[in-house]
Please model this.
Amino acid sequence: MKILLAEDDPMIGDAVEQGLRNAGCSVDRVRDGKAAELAVRTGTYALLVLDLGLPRQDGLAVLKKMRDAGNTLPVLVVTARGAVEERIAGLNLGADDYLAKPFDLDELVARMRALVRRHAGRARTEMRLGPLSLDPHRREVRLDGAAVELAQREFALLEALLEIPGAVLSTEQLEERLYGWGEEIASNAVEVHVHRLRKKLGAAWIRNVRGVGYRLVEPA
Model:
């Protein structure tokens, strides 16, 4: 899943960004509230991790503008330990959850995944289509009960297609899900990942909708 991280502290931001990448996430990072507001308006993300103490525009202002505009993107607020009033204000403005600094990275990832599941209307961690299942927490894929080993971007591609089985995602949408800012993207990168995923799952699982994109279907 693709995450927007709004954190201006260099040490915390670098550690969280690297930790999220190690957990299989694609991450775009901003360091002030104005940049966060712009990224939310123009990008496509599964979740926003929002520090409230941002320069230029604080996190509460970013959150308020988002919710006033009808943006339902899940938001996990991070605050200084003991900042109870800030946490309450954030929740009242529409934040979905919060963590106090310093926090455990594994807990952050677990809370993020829970929020994304809740937003998608899924109670279970596992995503499934017929005999194909994907567990984002364990980073496991199984087909007919047998484990399927996938590279990180193959896993991210399958996760994106499994969120709404049958829905068509364009190449541009999939690039946004698989890559963060500044990462070099070859012109045929998505096609290469689709080809490799088809080899591991079977070609019939991923349909090419000519001129539109790709969708995941259970083979007949």
